[in-house]
Amino acid sequence: MRQKISLIKGEPRAMPQEFSDEIGLRPATAADVPLIWSLIGELAEYEHLRDQMDATEQGLQDALFDKQAAHALLLEWQGRTAGYAIYFYSFSTFTGLSGIYLEDLYVRPAFRGKGIGRAVFTRLARKACEEGCGRLEWECLTWNAPSIAFYEKMGARAKNDWRGYRLSGDALRTAAGL
Q1: How many domains would you assign to the chain?
Q2: What is the 3-state secondary structure (H, E, C) of the chain?
Q3: pLDDT tens, residue by residue, 71-92
Q4: Phi-psi region of 53 (alpha: psi -120 to 50; beta: other; left: phi over 0)
Q5: Which Gene3D superfamilies does its entry note (predicted)?
Q6: Which pTM value belongs to this model?
Q7: Which domain does 125 fall in, by range?
Q8: 141 - beta bridge partners?
Q9: Bridge-based pairing state of the strands 2-8 and 135-141
Q10: Considering all CA atoms of the chain, what is the largest pairwise distance in Å, rounded to the nearest integer?
Q11: Of 1, 10, 11, 14, whose CA–CA distance to 149 is shortest?
């Protein structure tokens, strides 16, 4: 089970202004799709959800580059691939503002603890502030204690008053009357 977490505009954030020169965050290109797909597989393994991974390279190509429904960053440490992040824009009727939703943040185990995840949050929080977004949100599996501790150290708070729902597969087709 994932819990929804958010950084709300105006709340304190314990994030650095800059990050190490050894960390690279770059927008992914279409040529990176096979690498992104492979990294998503690594994340699915880590989350014990590999059996639920239906993504294909073509689907990623369509979503990230043809339709531009989401954006991907490749994370690097000393020039080596350290992970990825995928985010998209959302909207809140309560705030009347757009937001950024971080769908995935994955840092390979060998690169954890080097400030890469913090650099991603710094980059996305700045982007949200510069673009007038009201929040940065994401979800985290409830058993993932290291990630939860990291998020809370940044000043994020779990949204325990909301429960997420999803329609997918047969349930989605049934709801669509198909």
Answers
A1: 1
A2: CEEEEEEECCCCCCCCCCCCCCEEEEECCHHHHHHHHHHHHHHHHHCCCHHHCCCCHHHHHHHHHHCCCCEEEEEEECCEEEEEEEEEEEEECCCCEEEEEEEEEEECHHHCCCCHHHHHHHHHHHHHHHCCCCEEEEEEECCCHHHHHHHHHHCCEECCCCCCCCCCHHHHHHHCCC
A3: 999 999 999 999 999 999 999 9
A4: beta
A5: 3.40.630.30
A6: 0.86
A7: 2-175
A8: 2
A9: antiparallel
A10: 53
A11: 14
With contact defined as beta carbons under 8 Å apart, do 30 and 65 qualify?
yes
> Looking at the DSSP assignment, which residues form a beta bridge with residue 99?
90, 135
Q: How many CA within 13 A on the CB side of residue 165?
A: 3
Instruction: Please state, as a whole number, how many other Cβ atoms lie within 10 Å of the Cβ of residue 135.
Output: 20
**What tens digit of pLDDT does each residue of 113-139 get?**
999 999 999 999 999 999 999 999 999
Q: State how far the Cα of 94 lies from the Cα of 98, in Å rounded to an integer.
A: 10
**Tokens for 109?**
């185990």
Pick the residue with more confidence: 21 or 101? 101
Q: Looking at the annotation, which residues are catalytic?
A: 151
- Average pLDDT, stretch 129-152? 94
Amino acid letter, 134:
G
Report the share of the chain in percent with pLDDT over 90: 79
